[in-house]
Amino acid sequence: MKKFLSLFAALVCATAALAQTPRQIINRMNETMKGLEPTGIAMEVEVHIPVIGTVISRVWSLHGKQKTVTTIGKKQQLEWIDGRTSWSYDVKSNTVSITEKDSPEDNTEANNRLGMFEDLTQGYDFSIKDENAEFWIFTCTRSKSNPDKDAPKKMELVVRKSDYHPIRLDYRMSLIRLSMRDFRFGLTDKDVTFDPAECPGATIKDYRK
To answer: Looking at the predicted structure, is the pLDDT value of residue 179 above 90?
Structure first.
């Protein structure tokens, strides 16, 4: 009986999934992300740039504060920002530079990247490229009616079926390739707050007025 009920539940889930259009799935993903955004989000952003090479950034964002670890080749830099103050740690020189903006901002990289998902629902057409028991793979094609002609013409989006969380978003703009992946929701203030312990023995230079 238990096996029958498990099979029945699986069939119900499969039928529900089949009943959804690609746009309904992506809209639900966006609604899920908006609901979780106040809890904080972490992601990895990988960018391939000609001449410069591969730039990998791991980003944590919560309540207008952000921590970023950026790696370019063998060079690594850490940065914490809280809207007005930034702490930038250059690992090679073992130096922390503290600077302050004239006015507070809430324009973090994570917020900018998340805007890509909102743009999807407004300016793209979707089709399912592939799927399995765990996730859908969508092809996102820029709509003819999309007023932003600088937006990527095509993107690939992977969404997990169990919770409608994004797994990966890939796209290309000219010669630059970008991938957003390893999304995680639910952070603490410690995840995004400057900690001198992460910069052992560093020289601190305070440039605030």
So the answer is: yes
